[in-house]
Amino acid sequence: MNIIVCIKQVPDTTEIRMDPVTNTLVRSGVPSVINPFDRHALEAAVSLRDKYGGTVTAVTMGPPQAAEALRESYALGADRMALINDVRFSGSDTYATSYILAESIKLIGRFDLIICGKQAIDGDTAQVGPALAEQLGIPQLTYVRKIELSGGRIRVERELDDCYEAAEAPLPVLLTVVKSINDPRLPNVVRKLRANRMEPDIISGGDIADLDPNRIGLAGSPTKVFRTFAPVRARNTVMIDGSQADAAVKRLLSEFDGKKIAI
Amino acid sequence: MSRYGFYLGMDADQKDIVSMVKQFAEKELDPIIGEYDEKGEFPMKAHRAWGEMGLWGIDVPEEYGGLGMSALTRYLVFEELAKHDAGFAVSNGAFSFGLTAILLSGTEEQKLAACGRVLSGEGISMAITEPQSGSDVSGTKTTAAKTDGGYILNGVKCFITNASLCSACVVLAVTDPEARYHGMSFFLVEKDFPGVSVGKHEDKMGIRLSDTADFVMEDVFVPDDHLVGTEGEGFSNAMKVLSIKRPVSVAGAVGIAQRALDLAVDYAKTREFKGVPIGRLEGVQFMLADIEMRVQAARSMAVYGAQMTDAGADIGTLGNSLKAFGTEICFEAVNTALQVFGGYGYSREYPMEKLLRDIRIYSIFEGTNQIQRQVIAKMLLA
Question: A149, A166 in Cβ contact below 8 A?
Answer without folding.
Answer: no
